Amino acid sequence: MIISRTPYRISFFGGGTDYPAWYLKNGGEVLSATIDKYCYISSRYLPPFFDHKIRVVWSQNELCQDVSEIKHPSVRETLKYLALETQGLEIYHQGDLPARSGVGSSSSFTVGLLNAICTLQGEMIDKHQLAERSIHIEQNLIKETVGSQDQVSAAYGGFNHIRFLTNGSFAVNPIEIGQDRINDLNQHLMLFFTGVARTAEKVAESYVVDIETKEKQLCSMQKMVGEAISTLTGKGSLEDIGKLLHEAWLRKSSLSKLVSNSYVDKMYSVAREAGALGGKLCGAGGGGFMLLFVPPEKQSTVKEKFHKLVHVPFDFEHEGTQIIFHDKQKRYFEEEESRAQNQISSFLDLKDL
User: Fold this and answer.
1) Which residues fall within 8 angstroms of residue 167, CB to CB, at 6 or more apart?
2) What is the per-residue pLDDT across 312-335, written as a single tens digit (0 to 9) for each?
3) pTM value?
C-alpha cells in the first residue's frame, strides 16, 4: 500500500495569469503558498477475491471492472495516462478541506494520485515531472478550464514565485523570507469558509474565453506579484500586503460577474468594517474560502462578526506532495500467490496418488 499526502494552496497574487490562454502569449506569474491542510490518497493492488477489479472511494464508492468505467475524471484519466496494467486496484481519498472550495483541492488530488500510483508501479518522479504531468492530465486529457499554478504549488510546496513562460514551461523560485517574517505574515492571515461550494471551471470559463479583453486587469494583477515580493522580502510593514490584497481583489472581481456575488461582497464589506485591511476569495472565485489580512488586535472582532462561519487556522508548509507510507504489498502479494499455486499443485499431486 502507498499513501501520499499533498498540501492545498493559497494564491496571493497573479491568479488568472496562470491560464495557458494568457501566459502562452504574455507570460504569467503568481505568488502562492501551500498550507498544512492536506489531501490523502491511499492506493494498493486489490487481491483477486472480489467481483470488482477497481474500487475508487471519494464522495462516491465506485466498483468497476475497467478503467473506462470510472466516473471520477482525474482517476480515470490518470490511470489511462499511466497505462496501469493490474489485476486489481483500490484507491481511497480523504481531505482536510472540502472540494470546490478554492484551495486547489482538485489539483492536489491529481498530483497526489499521480505520485501514489507512480510509486506503486515502482517509478519515482521528481516534483517538476509531477507538476508537468498533472497539468497535462487536467488541461489536455480531462479538458478542464484550469490554470497551472495549483499543480505546481501542490507538487513543490512552500512559498513560491512561479513564472509561466510563453514556451509553455514554468520556473519555481522559492521566496527567501526569514522565519520571523513568515510567522508575522501567518499571524495576520485568517481563513474562513463561506459555506458556498462552487465549480471553479464555470467561474474561470466566464473570463478565460475572452481573456485577451482583460489585458488591463491581468497586467495590473501580474505587476502586483513583484510588489508583494518586495514587501515580503523587505523590512517594511506587512500591512502593505493587506492593502495590496484589497487592490488585487477589486481587479479580480472585475474580470467577471461570477467571480463575486452579493453574499461575498457583503461578507467582505463586513470584514473590512471589522478591521481587515484586505482579502480575497481563494481560487477562481464564486465562493469557497475567503482569505483575510487582519491585524492581530482586530481578529477577535472579525471572528465575532463571522461566528456562524468556519474559521480554519493554518500554518505554511514547505514540503509539497510526499509519500508518507510505503510497504511492499506487491512483492508480498506475488509471494502469497505463488505459495497458493504451489499448495494447489501439491494437492493435485496427492489426489493423483
Assistant:
1) none
2) 999 999 999 999 999 876 544 555
3) 0.91
